[in-house]
Amino acid sequence: MSYEKELAAAKKAVSLAARLSQEVQKTLLQSQVWTKSDRSPVTAADYGSQAVVSLVLERELQPVKLSLLAEEETGDLRKKGSEVFLESITKLVKDTLASEESYASSPLSTEDVLNAIDRGKSEGGCRGCHWVLDPIDGTRGFVRGEQYAVGLALLVEGKVVLGVMACPNLPLASVVCETDKSFPETLGCLFFATTGLGTYMEPLQGNSPPQKVRVSSNENLEEAKFLESYHRPIPIHGSIAEKLGIKALPVRIDSQAKYAALSRGDAEIYLRFTLSGHREYIWDHAAGSIITTEAGGVVCDATGESLDFSNGKYLAHKTGIIVTTKKLKPLVLKAVRESMEEENLQF
Ligand SMILES: Nc1ncnc2c1ncn2[C@@H]1O[C@H](COP(=O)(O)O)[C@@H](OP(=O)(O)O)[C@H]1O
Ligand SMILES: [Mg+2]
Ligand SMILES: [Mg+2]
Ligand SMILES: [Mg+2]
């Protein structure tokens, strides 16, 4: 089956959501960063992006009924005292949609915005078609003015068949190699992948045609680069890298931009073990995983098994997520096994 219509809708939705997020990031104040019940940060961009993607997908794909599983909920926005924040989100969504000619004249109330966000309550699963959205992935990076992503994927019968990811602050050139800082870098990339058709990247701004991307062909681990999350160092990552003979220090960036960077060969390995037994959400990996695998990479858990997106909002997987190239997978898994044994970690 071809997913041309779905891909076009997803690219439009994600591009508009990225535009909204860039507007917010330009003027974001610390006082505008809210804290959710799990103590993680959330901003007008997280809510606004989810509303935009929900509204655009619904309009572009009608009369098909949208099933959307997305990160944000409206509980806090519906509480007393949130009226000003909600008004500002509604204005953002309106202005963003108005920048797209075909949506220019649509009226939009705060209730429409709340309902659009609430459409993200699907439970996903192994039957039927479900869109999976992380409206702002890497909110901490977004708040610092650094890397973040808007990640949207389509699950069909429990498998990811399409992924689109905007990385508004990712350079078009490598994020890992030192570039000449005397020249302004071009920032903003849109990645997309459809099952069996490869992964493409295009600039978020302008009309340049998409380019097919592939993972690195480098097999020399001494020269390999590895990526990890920004927020805190995970000791086992260092031990795995040492066993592999990797010389360079890890490159730490927020969000699924790590998957995107690896898919175009910026780095060979992305390791994601957690300290606290945090359960992984499917929206943190759905778009990134197909963007990597369609570019010739592999995404698996510490036992080498592929990730399972068919069990609702949480990923069903064993300890650790490993993203690398097909050639390096056996070597990385061997180093992972040895490091886990040394640290008495169970699969
Ligand atoms: N303690 C923790 N361990 C692992 N992942 C966590 C975490 N707390 C939050 N996360 C998830 O990690 C995502 C960010 O990934 P990364 O660390 O690669 O930037 C967050 O996405 P959001 O920013 O969308 O909430 C959140 O879902
Ligand atoms: Mg996320
Ligand atoms: Mg998020
Ligand atoms: Mg979040």
TrEMBL record:
Named in its record, the pathway it takes part in is: Signal transduction; phosphatidylinositol signaling pathway
Q: Which PROSITE patterns does its entry note?
A: IMP_1 (PS00629)
Q: Which UniProt keywords apply?
A: Hydrolase, Magnesium, Metal-binding, Multifunctional enzyme
Q: Which SUPFAM superfamilies match?
A: Carbohydrate phosphatase
Q: Name one Pfam family in it.
A: Inositol_P
> Could you tell me what reaction this enzyme catalyses?
3'-phosphoadenylyl sulfate + H2O = adenosine 5'-phosphosulfate + phosphate; adenosine 3',5'-bisphosphate + H2O = AMP + phosphate; 1D-myo-inositol 1,4-bisphosphate + H2O = 1D-myo-inositol 4-phosphate + phosphate
State the organism of origin.
Eutrema salsugineum
Quote the function comment for this protein.
Answer: Converts adenosine 3'-phosphate 5'-phosphosulfate (PAPS) to adenosine 5'-phosphosulfate (APS) and 3'(2')-phosphoadenosine 5'-phosphate (PAP) to AMP.
Q: GO molecular function: any one?
A: 3'(2'),5'-bisphosphate nucleotidase activity
Q: What is this protein called?
A: 3'(2'),5'-bisphosphate nucleotidase
The entry marks the following residues as binding Mg(2+), namely E71, D134, I136, D137, D284
Q: Which CDD domains match?
A: PAP_phosphatase
Swiss-Prot/TrEMBL GO biological process terms: inositol phosphate metabolic process; sulfate assimilation
State the family it belongs to: Belongs to the inositol monophosphatase superfamily.
Q: Which cofactor does it need?
A: Mg(2+)
